[in-house]
Amino acid sequence: MEPELWAVLIAGAAAAGWVDAVIGGGGLVLIPLLLAVVPGLAPATALGTNKLVGLSGTASAAWTLVRRVRPRITPWHVVLALACSGAGALSASLIDAAVMRPVIIVLLLAVGTFVALRPSFGTAPAAGGGEVGRWRRWLVLLAVGVIAFYDGIFGPGTGMFLIMAFTALLSQDFLRSAAMAKVVNASTNLGALLVFAWGGHVWWQLGLVLAVANILGAQLGARTVLGGGAKLVRFALLSVVIVMSSLLTWQEISS
Predict the structure, then answer these.
(1) How many folded domains does the chain comprise?
(2) Phi, psi angles (nearest 5°) of residue 57
(3) Cβ–Cβ contacts within 10 Å for residue 125, how many?
(4) Counting Cβ atoms within 10 Å, is residue 241 exposed (0-12), middle (13-18) or buried (19+)?
């Protein structure tokens, strides 16, 4: 590639890392950019390379957030996310994206409406020190498994859905949920990456270069989240709902 194309991709990877660290959805930035800058790139390779880049940045952001916020994460969340995202990636060819889009649009609008009508949701002080009932712990595991499987199949909005699930089921604020979501999202990226790598759908040289830029963007994004707190995450969540629902609706209409 020409140097200017490398510059565009590196800048895009950094921007995707920032977006991913703040609320999730970096793939919405990087995947279209990869396909536009490298026209001959197979979609599966773009997805696989994005998983490599996303794993690097998300793991980096998770490390920074967890050290500061110290959420309670169980190993089962990580293991389940890894397995279910891998299963989702294996099943991706069996499910048409056109079938997924209307369902995700409805879910996005439901999430956005709920958060908009409940200003206090996720912005109250965290209740992380309280006990969580057994049924809620099982519901959290179920939510992690379903969202991880979705990330392997389709992906957009995974971080946002995880934040919503953790906030609602564990009665905690957005900041603590964002830290938990980054850890789980790193695991979902790894699970899907293993499947894409097994199928030979990862451009390692490009992905590793972009991973460095993604980590830098993710570190900036993690510090943005820590500085802005739960209110910033709430604003970012609503912004992602608007952008993603608009993009998916446009794709649905034009397809």
Answers:
(1) 1
(2) -70, -45
(3) 9
(4) buried
**CA gap 59, 116 in Å, rounded:** 29
Residues ≥6 apart with Cβ < 8 Å to 118: none
**How far is the C-alpha of 233 from the C-alpha of 239, rounded, in Å?**
10
Residue 34 amino acid letter: L
Full residue range of the structural domain in which residue 222 is found: 3-254
Rounded to two decimals, the pTM is 0.85
In the block, residue with structure tokens 């990862």? 202
Query: Is 167 within 8 Å of 173 (Cβ atoms)?
Result: yes
Helix axes 174-198, 204-254, angle to 10 degrees: 110
Instruction: For tokens 């994460």, name the residue.
Output: 73
Main-chain dihedrals φ then ψ at residue 58, nearest 5 degrees:
-65, -40
Task: Tell me, letter by letter, the H, E, C secondary structure of 141-207.
Answer: HHHHHHHHHHHHHCCCCHHHHHHHHHHHHHCCCHHHHHHHHHHHHHHHHHHHHHHHHHCCCCCHHHH
pLDDT in tens, the chain (255 residues): 788 999 999 999 999 999 888 887 788 788 889 988 998 888 888 889 999 999 999 999 999 999 998 888 889 999 999 999 999 988 876 776 667 678 777 888 888 888 888 777 777 654 444 566 788 889 999 999 999 999 888 777 788 889 999 998 988 888 899 999 999 999 999 999 999 999 999 999 999 999 999 999 999 999 998 998 878 888 888 887 888 788 778 877 886
Token pair for 115: 């958060």
